[in-house]
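tokens incoming
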């Protein structure tokens, strides 16, 4: 007797693995994985059929293909099937006595997670009745603290933090209401709850490396700067990082945010609290990098401190205040993310001192930003958070960035395309994606397409009239920009609701001919 067990069900859309188990020989037969997710599967006449779903190369487009797996043909090397002789000394190979198969009423579900997690969490296997399989993904994502809290243990005392995070998400993740969302005079969370959110998020970030490892497909967002409405507009048009039951696509995409969550805009508290809640709920799929405004000396001047004082009614100089506590948390944020060992994401750039990934990995958190540097670690941190590319591909080397460094301390640099090319070659990478600069079209190429700047806040400071962009990196390394325009233009139907102007596909090298098509 053989049982068909439906294989891999997981929250990030990995392929379904189908296996058969022979109870007598104690042997498994593993079939090729179905290269799609969220499809329908059933058994019929010794065949396993799968229909619909999404393929990894185009995770937002439903397919109408039917896949059939013939169990008889695929089990010949495992089963000892009797062959009926028709004539003496002659055997017809295909004349088998068909074995009897029975579909098991119980599926063995397996959740696969990052190798950074404890062994017992990396692959959790447990039996599940078939009539409950449909709703399993919702329970795993939304209500299982074992999978989503910082230490990934069965400590039930961690549940309140997850409930708080879910409360924040349900209150703030409202993409359909972006046009009426305004900063309330008093923030909806009490300081005590925000401090609990910060503590739990910091515990998660401290347990993770300073360089995040990320898999495709992934969405990358640049500077948000407290423009919570712009974030909601992105989530409205192209879905956000929540479960599908809430209208999101966290089961299909990882998310990388490049920093500068606060300052300038009027809703820094909404922005950072939502992102922290998402990080707590999906700790291995939401990646929050540090920007130059995640620095107490900067956000004390450019709006965040004032927002905390007015909307939380707190003394920002109190060491136990939300303002001081969240800036301590900022000192723990990771500095870079590497996608499939091909693409590096960071906030500013590589400046004059960042030569390898090891330069970043060796740094010890918490890290306070020192603007008049005296050590190499301080210089590397300043380069990562503050440096910019030079004005054009013709300006080589490094030079002091006077625009960023009006006091001429000599600590902030611009880097040329030669630096980009050398860094990528030495580290066996293909692309740098960074934020930090407001660019008119929301994204901009540099170094013949080997570096891309992305900026997600529209009409920066109410003066630039710039578009905002997010970059979607698909499984085949095609990079697709998604654009929104300032809200005053959106009323005239000037949104780009389905922008599919592709950037250069990531191959062995970036094609200069394709790059020229975007000028």
């Amino acid at each position: 007797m053989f049982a068909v067990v439906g294989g891999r069900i997981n929250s990030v859309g990995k392929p379904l693995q189908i296996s058969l188990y022979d109870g007598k020989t104690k042997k498994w037969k593993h079939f090729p994985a179905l290269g799609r997710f969220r499809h329908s599967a059933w058994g019929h006449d010794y065949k396993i059929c799968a229909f619909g779903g999404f393929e990894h190369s185009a995770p937002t487009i439903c397919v109408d293909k039917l896949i059939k797996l013939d169990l008889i043909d695929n089990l010949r090397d495992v089963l000892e099937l009797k062959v009926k002789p028709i004539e003496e000394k002659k055997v017809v190979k295909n004349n088998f006595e068909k074995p009897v198969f029975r579909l098991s009423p119980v599926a063995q579900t397996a959740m696969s997670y990052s190798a950074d997690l404890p062994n017992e969490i990396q692959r959790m296997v447990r039996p599940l009745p078939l009539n409950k399989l449909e709703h399993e993904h919702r329970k795993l994502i939304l209500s299982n603290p074992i999978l989503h809290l910082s230490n990934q243990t069965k400590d039930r005392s961690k549940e309140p933090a997850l409930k708080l995070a879910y409360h924040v998400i349900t209150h703030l993740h409202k993409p359909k209401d972006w046009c009426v969302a305004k900063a309330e005079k008093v923030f909806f969370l009490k300081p005590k709850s925000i401090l609990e959110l910060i503590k739990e998020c910091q515990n998660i970030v401290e347990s993770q490396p300073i360089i995040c490892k990320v898999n495709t497909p992934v969405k990358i967002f640049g500077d948000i700067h407290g423009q919570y409405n712009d974030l909601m507009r992105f989530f409205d048009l192209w879905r956000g990082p929540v479960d599908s039951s809430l209208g999101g696509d966290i089961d299909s995409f990882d998310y990388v945010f490049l920093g500068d969550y606060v300052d300038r805009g009027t809703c820094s508290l909404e922005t950072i609290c939502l992102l922290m809640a998402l990080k707590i709920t999906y700790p291995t799929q939401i990646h929050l990098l540090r920007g130059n405004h995640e620095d107490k000396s900067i956000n004390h001047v450019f709006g965040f401190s004032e927002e905390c004082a007015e909307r939380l009614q707190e003394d920002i100089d109190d060491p136990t205040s939300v303002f001081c506590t969240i800036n301590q948390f900022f000192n723990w944020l990771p500095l870079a993310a590497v996608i499939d060992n091909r693409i590096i994401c960071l906030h500013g750039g590589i400046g004059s001192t960042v030569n390898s990934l090891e330069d970043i990995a060796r740094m010890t958190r918490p890290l306070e930003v020192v603007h008049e540097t005296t050590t190499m670690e301080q210089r590397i941190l300043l380069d990562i958070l503050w440096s910019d590319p030079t004005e054009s591909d013709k300006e080589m080397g490094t030079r002091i960035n006077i625009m960023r460094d009006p006091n001429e301390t000599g600590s902030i640099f611009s880097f040329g395309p030669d630096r980009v090319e050398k860094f990528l070659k030495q580290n066996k990478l293909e692309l740098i994606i960074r934020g930090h600069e407001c660019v008119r079209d929301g994204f901009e190429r540099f170094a013949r397409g080997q570096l891309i700047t992305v900026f997600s806040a529209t009409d920066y400071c109410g003066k630039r009239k710039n578009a905002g962009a997010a970059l979607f990196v698909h499984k085949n390394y095609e990079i697709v920009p998604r654009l929104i325009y300032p809200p005053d233009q959106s009323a005239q139907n000037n949104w780009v609701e389905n922008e599919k102007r592709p950037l250069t596909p990531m191959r062995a090298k970036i094609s200069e001919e394709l790059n020229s098509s975007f000028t």
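note: The longest strand covers residues 90-96.
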